[in-house]
């Protein structure tokens, strides 16, 4: 009997993480467009915005020493501005990806975000619509929600829903005034329709909000991916995810993740996402090439080790037709992944689905069913579940 089933029995709410992630990037757009037009405020300074853009680029490129230098400088110059702890939290998040509750930096990450929210509240004390205060109140709470959701701590999300939504509504008031607000309106148009379709339990909730238009939402995100400055990466990542899951169009999704890997070749998260996409279209040769790049770049990184073991299992299964070696690699990858909790569910689903196929070919129907259920409970990507 497969022992892992009990461990992951409660992980069926696989869609929650994506929903809260939307809140975060709606807020990020609000900061990087709305705050530039504020009547006053540090982020209205063009030089500061250029420096912040460079800091964000350093973070995505995993040049953390340079990113830290900027964050420290900003904190010294503006000790009461919420951007300081926010940038410090963002560095902690990406530097220690995947950040799990038992990670040594986990508490520090939460403290930084709570500090950003507190400083944002002080900015809104006299003016509830003060742009930078609204943003950091929303994005601080949003990143906390995303962190809790990514790690299966959905109960901790509830207290943040109401206050973060109030801040989010303030941001929507700017959508007609700022043309590039199509990132936020694009996400809203798409998710308000697509999410309840994939997770029918949310249909009653969706009825309380204005209707959307999925195709219009995709077109808006496409425009941001092509023309955006600050949120180009986020638009590309969302398009990759949406076309790979909701739209079931892995060929289309591939172009977006390729762009991110080309722009940020040292970002192992993007390259790992590329592996998923290549698997979806059956490109085993390129998959092996990407794996070799990861081996050279991060020979001892625990997350990369997990990913490589799981995709080694996939290669041994599909290319070398070696079920025993494939099974060993899949199981090793699952064991590697347990330290990351629900954060790595999608990759674990690849292993579970592979083990289900191997068990089915061996005539072990009971194990095939168990592994199949585990795969289904840990991913929303149909291509992982439907692969033969």
Structure characterization notes:
This protein has 388 residues and is an all-alpha fold. The protein has 3 domains: 16-174; 179-264, no CATH class; 267-386, Serine Threonine Protein Phosphatase 5, Tetratricopeptide repeat (Alpha Horseshoe), CATH 1.25.40. It is built from 20 helices and no strands. Helix 13 packs antiparallel against helix 14. The chain is globular, with a radius of gyration of 21 Å. Residues 1-20, 25-40 and 174-180 have low confidence and may be disordered.
Can I get a quick summary?
This protein is mainly α and 388 residues long.
Please provide the ordered H/E string of secondary-structure elements.
HHHHHHHHHHHHHHHHHHHH
Principal-axis shape? globular
Query: What is the overall number of helices?
Result: 20
Strand tally is 0
Helix content: over 70%
CA-atom Rg in angstroms: 21 Å
- What would you call the structural class? mainly alpha
Q: N- to C-terminal separation?
A: 22 Å
Task: Tell me the major beta sheet.
Answer: none
Q: In percent terms, what proportion of residues is strand?
A: under 5%
Total individual domains:
3
Residue-averaged pLDDT: 82
Question: Low-confidence stretches at least 5 residues in length (pLDDT < 50)?
Answer: 1-20, 25-40, 174-180
């Amino acid at each position: 009997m497969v022992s892992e089933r009990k461990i992951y029995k409660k992980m069926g709410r696989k869609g929650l993480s994506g929903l809260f992630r939307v809140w975060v990037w709606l807020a990020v757009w609000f900061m990087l467009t709305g705050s530039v037009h504020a009547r006053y405020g540090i982020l209205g300074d063009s030089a500061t915005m250029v420096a912040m853009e460079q800091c964000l680029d350093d973070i995505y490129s995993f040049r953390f020493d340079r990113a830290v230098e900027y964050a420290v400088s900003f904190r010294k110059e503006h000790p009461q501005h919420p951007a300081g702890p926010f940038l410090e939290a963002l560095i902690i998040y990406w530097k220690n990806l995947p950040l799990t509750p038992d990670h040594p930096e986990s508490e520090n990450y939460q403290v930084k975000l709570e500090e950003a929210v507190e400083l944002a509240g002080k900015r809104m004390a006299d003016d509830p619509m003060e742009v930078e205060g609204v943003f950091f109140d929303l994005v601080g709470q949003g990143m906390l929600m995303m962190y809790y959701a990514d790690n299966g701590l959905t109960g901790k999300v509830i207290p943040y829903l109401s206050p973060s939504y109030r801040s989010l509504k303030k941001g929507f008031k700017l959508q007609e005034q700022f043309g590039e607000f199509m990132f936020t309106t694009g996400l809203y148009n798409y998710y308000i329709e697509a999410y309840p379709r994939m997770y029918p339990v949310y249909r009653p909730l969706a009825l309380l909000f204005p209707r959307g238009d999925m195709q219009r939402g995709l077109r808006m995100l496409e425009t941001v991916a092509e023309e955006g400055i600050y949120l180009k990466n986020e638009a590309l990542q969302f398009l990759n995810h949406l076309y790979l899951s909701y739209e079931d169009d892995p060929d289309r999704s591939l172009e977006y993740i390729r762009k991110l890997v080309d722009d940020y070749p040292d970002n192992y998260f993007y390259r790992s996402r590329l592996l998923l996409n290549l698997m979806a279209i059956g490109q085993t040769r390129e998959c092996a090439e990407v794996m070799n790049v990861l081996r050279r770049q991060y020979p001892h990184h625990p997350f990369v080790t997990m990913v490589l073991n799981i995709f080694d299992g996939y290669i041994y299964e599909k290319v070398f037709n070696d079920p025993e070696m494939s099974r060993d690699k899949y199981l090793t990858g699952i064991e590697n992944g347990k330290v990351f909790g629900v954060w790595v569910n999608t990759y674990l689903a690849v292993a579970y689905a592979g083990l289900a196929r191997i068990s089915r070919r061996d005539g072990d129907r009971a194990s095939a069913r168990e592994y199949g259920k585990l795969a289904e409970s840990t991913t929303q990507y149909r291509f992982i579940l439907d692969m033969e």
